[in-house]
Amino acid sequence: MKKNFNRRDFVKTTAIGGLGLGLIGNATSLYGKSSPASGRIGIIGLDTSHSVAYAKALNGPDPKPEYSGFKIVAAYPKGSNDIKSSTERIPGYIEEVKKVGVEIVNSIDELLTKVDFVCLETNDGRLHLEQAIPVLKAGKRMFIDKPVAASLTDAIAIFDVAKHYNVPVFSSSSLRYISGAKEIAEGAIGKVTGADAYSPCHLEKTHPDLFWYGIHGVEILFTVMGKGIKSVTRVSTPDTDMAIGTWEDNRIGTFRGIRAGKAGYGGTVFGEKDILKLGDFGGYDPLLVKILEFFKTGIPPVSSEETLDIFAFMQAADESKLKGGIPVEVEKVRQKAIQNAKKVRY
Residue 311 gets which letter from DSSP? Predict the structure, then answer.
């Protein structure tokens, strides 16, 4: 039976796991569930290269020791209905994962009978809430690839439903583990006083501007700054986006989205002791290791609070653009999304 889901205050939604850089510590999972004995992983969505990369890493002939005990055994390939760059990939990616022993299934329900954990990889964030609900009902720990959803409302709803079913879930860009971030987490520059992050920022008409690709650079920004965003101001041109965030403690962090000229990932982080430039993108391996640790422990390496702060930042940046670049208070954006999320049924 479906029913309305009653939500509590946003900041109390499923907040467990790591803060700041989200490195796994000695916390005890609030979900209180022991790790399943087996490590059968299922994938939802074969319209992203991430699915193929994970399948080859875990199912290949010489997997890394960190991957021991885990295999991707099945995939439900359905992805976006109308994003051409996604739909065109699916036939080829089906063949690639089949070569490493992944069974192709016809529905999410069928997938859930064959797996212990789920990676929701569908490139189209608009589908994530609909696809996540049956996984959460089935009690399967789940990683949701970026973007966790195509709206702040759906992102809030996903974490609320996860809390209702007492199932741990987390989402992250692989750029959270960019080189230099670990040193900052360990106090190399003392308290972070501000940061400037950048990444490519291709746009997709079906998603709010930063949700599609700019999220990579925004995740870098929040990786080093942490949660607590207060207001956002955005300047946008055809070639560049600049979103300036003010945190509750008056620190300032910026995101530059690049659509022309040389593109890349990185940033500069300002601290009490030093100024540090972030290094190179290290590929998918650091994130995959965190996903597998999460499947073992049930402890999300990134808190839902921080993930939802990222999405509130991006939503506020969109509103600032629509209003001609004036500052937008994040709490107003957040409260509106919470009210809309109350309408979600499951």
Answer: H
HSE value, Cβ hemisphere, 13 Å, CA-based, for 163:
21
pTM for this structure?
0.87
Specify the pLDDT at position 346.
77
The lowest-confidence range among 20-24, 205-209, 265-269, 298-302 is 20-24
Give the chain's domain count.
2
DSSP 193-241: EEEEEEEE----TTS-HHHHTTHHHHHHHHHHH-S-EEEEEEEE-SSEE
Task: Give the CATH number for residue 102.
Answer: 3.40.50.720
- Give yes or no: residues 169 and 189 share one domain: no
Is 301:220 a contact under the CB 8 Å cutoff? no
Instruction: Supply the range of the domain harboring residue 85.
Output: 10-174+285-301
Contact between 298 and 31 under an 8 Å Cβ cutoff? The reply is yes
CATH number of the domain residue 216 falls in: 3.30.360.10
